[in-house]
Predict the structure.
Amino acid sequence: MPISIDKMSFDVLISTEQIQERVRELGERISQDYEGLNPILMVVLNGGFVFASDLMRAIRIPCEVDFIKISSYGDELHTSGEVKMKKDYDSLVGGRHLIVVEDIVDSGLSVSFLKQKFSMQAPASVRFATLLHKPENSSLGFDLDYVGFPIGPEFVIGYGLDYKQNWRNLPAIYVRVDGREGGKRS
Ligand code: IMP
Ligand code: MG
């Protein structure tokens, strides 16, 4: 059933069941890859918290969690091209294995910023887990290690992702179906 928000129309792109199944698979892979390594899940707020809370419970090895808040979306539908630190993490990350948990990688600006920021703290390793990736929009110089779903450039909401800070509570991923706005600013 499509939902209407600010005269835009959104419909389900990825169902709750599909998300749950994929999160279980990613949790299993992380459990195997990090056996004995006690990783820190570094959750990128705000959007990453829903994915992270499910992912963490799909991981069957000891792991810690910490949070960092950054923002890159200048207005509601487009990336601003600039990353701002809003809240720093607390952990001592030197020598630790970090898994940065994002809701979505769009332009790639945020994850590139975080990769650079964390590498200055000499962690044992840094990898990226993201529920969604818009490969058409991002030109990354490195691989994303755990990707839930590659998607098109259209704007999406739900399961942590917002429109004007709302709709993060939708239990599925919804995509805008009445226009191609919301991709990279051209
Ligand atoms: P990037 O720095 O361009 O990769 O953007 C990453 C951040 O922008 C994500 O962590 C989201 O918070 C936000 N974002 C990117 N695409 C969307 C979208 O389609 N809907 C909602 N938020 C988005
Ligand atoms: Mg985000």
Confidence is low (pLDDT under 50) at residues 182-186. The pocket of inosinic acid (ligand 1) is lined by residues 47, 72-73, 79, 102-110, 155-157, 161-162, 182 (CB under 6 Å).
